[in-house]
Design goal:
Structural class: alpha/beta
Helix content: 40-55%
CATH superfamily of the largest domain: Hypothetical protein af1403, domain 2
Number of strands: 14
CATH architecture of the largest domain: 3-Layer(aba) Sandwich
CATH topology of the largest domain: Rossmann fold
Order of helices and strands: HEEEHEEHEHEHEHEHEHHEEEE
CATH class of the largest domain: Alpha Beta
Shape: elongated
Length: 440
């Protein structure tokens, strides 16, 4: 055994005394929360500091806040900042050094300055807002218009949230009997999963309606019923703001409280306080459209009635003028018809006279031509008659010739007949019937 050796406990106690003597006071320290957990009322925090150039951790430490202190500073921090202490948050802490022989070194937290974190959050929010403006998307939603008949609503909310139920109930029980069609796209509305969950719901809406034959919604309503103000941090992210800003249909938000406005509220088409306020907005919008249509209908009816009265007066005045105008018109038309009749009779007489003259001329020309044609045709008939007489079969029979027939047809070739055929032979005086009798 080494002489004058210390036990581990003695060494740790010595280190504890050195730290207690060497660092007797408390220190304000800036750091980022890497991890935070609360166990039996005590808070255990892992702190880090990152390099500005590489965002790589260059320092780490463990800190503790005992229950009696945590129960005071945590509610106060949340009240001032509207946020719970969480991972990724920059804080300014009042700490003192502590080394326990059994548990090692840690910083003991006695206070946290919420104004520092509030300023850091404001800087981050402002940086996001400036980037959205540089990208030219900050006011894109404001350039869209709610459709006149905004009745098909896509809702992004927690399915079990009371605010969602209140939103749907208010739309369905509106005093005017307007009909709204809502479809829920569930999403996480508090905690660290808000950003990705809401973005996924927006993508689902886009794929479901805007790339298919289904009826697209007239607007999207993002509502969050109840919940702590501290849970609004999920709506202050750049990715979510960019997705909503560039969504092709109007987005209405009802996620905050009266004094809180998230970045999502800023870039949305319309921001209201609560889900019921979102429902009231849609009902009021449709009511204004309805009132406009009613007013327009009244104007149309009035204009139509005035126009009908004016046209009725014109018809009455025209009816009074018709009898004298008709008499004058009738007289003019009768004179015109008489003149046309005289012209027609004169023209018909002239045409008949011309045609009669043409007929007389044609008759004097045609008659000699017909007589010559008839004489020529008669001569031709006589010539043909002589030829026909010369070809008369009876003359041939008188000269001693005969004609043989088979089945009514003249036989010109003996090979056409066969044994047993009946033939008929005509001579000058009479007919001879025979049966062919020949041997091959």
């Amino acid at each position: 055994m080494v002489r004058n050796a210390l036990s581990l406990l003695e060494l740790n106690q010595l280190l504890a005394e050195v730290i207690e003597i060497g660092m007797p006071r408390e220190y304000w320290v800036e750091a980022e929360i890497s991890e935070l957990r609360v166990v039996r009322g005590h808070c255990y925090i892992d702190l880090i500091e990152k390099s500005e150039g590489t965002n790589t951790p260059i320092a780490r430490a463990s800190a503790k806040c005992w229950q009696n202190t945590w129960s005071v500073i945590s509610p106060y921090f949340e009240k001032v900042t509207g946020q719970r202490l969480r991972s990724g948050m920059n804080v300014l802490m009042l700490v003192s050094a502590n080394f326990h022989p059994a548990y090692g070194f840690s910083w003991i937290i006695s206070d946290i300055d919420p104004t520092y974190t509030l300023g850091d959050m404001a800087r981050k929010r402002q940086a996001i807002i400036e980037q959205l403006k540089r990208e030219g998307v900050f006011d894109l939603q404001k350039e869209l218009s709610l459709p006149l008949f905004c009745q098909h609503i896509a809702v992004i909310s927690s399915a079990n949230a009371a605010g969602y139920g209140d939103f749907v109930d208010q739309l369905e029980s509106n005093a005017y009997g307007f009909r709204f069609v809502t479809r829920l796209f569930p999403a996480t509305m508090q905690g660290e999963g808000v950003e990705q969950s809401v973005i996924a719901a927006l993508n689902n809406i886009y794929e479901t309606f805007l790339t298919s034959d289904e009826t697209a919604p007239d607007c999207v309503v993002i509502i969050r019923g109840g919940g702590a103000t501290s849970d609004l941090s999920g709506f202050d992210t750049l990715a979510l703001a960019e997705n909503v800003a560039q969504f092709p249909i109007p987005v209405i938000t009802g996620i905050g409280h009266e004094r809180d406005e998230s970045i999502l509220d800023m870039i949305s088409h319309t921001r209201v306080k609560t889900p019921t306020a979102a429902a009231a907005l849609l009902i009021d919008h449709l009511k204004r459209v309805w009132d406009y249509l009613q007013e327009a209908q009244g104007v149309l009816e009035t204009n139509a009635r005035q126009r009908m009265d004016l046209e009725q007066m014109r018809l009455q005045r025209a009816a009074q003028k018709i009898p004298p105008l008709f008499s004058l018109f009738k007289e003019r038309q009768e004179r015109r018809i008489d003149s046309m009749m005289r012209d027609m009779i004169t023209a018909a007489q002239r045409s008949i006279s011309d045609d009669m003259h043409k007929l007389e001329t044609l008759e004097s020309v045609i008659k000699p031509m017909l007589e010559r044609r008839v004489t020529g045709e008669m001569h031709m008939l006589q010539m043909l008659g002589q030829r026909v007489s010369a070809l008369d079969p009876d003359l041939l029979l008188k000269r001693g010739y005969s004609i043989t027939l088979h089945e009514g047809k003249i036989v010109r070739d003996a090979s056409q007949l066969k044994h047993g055929d009946k033939i008929e032979t005509r001579v000058e005086k009479g007919t001879i019937h025979s049966i062919v009798d020949c041997e091959e």
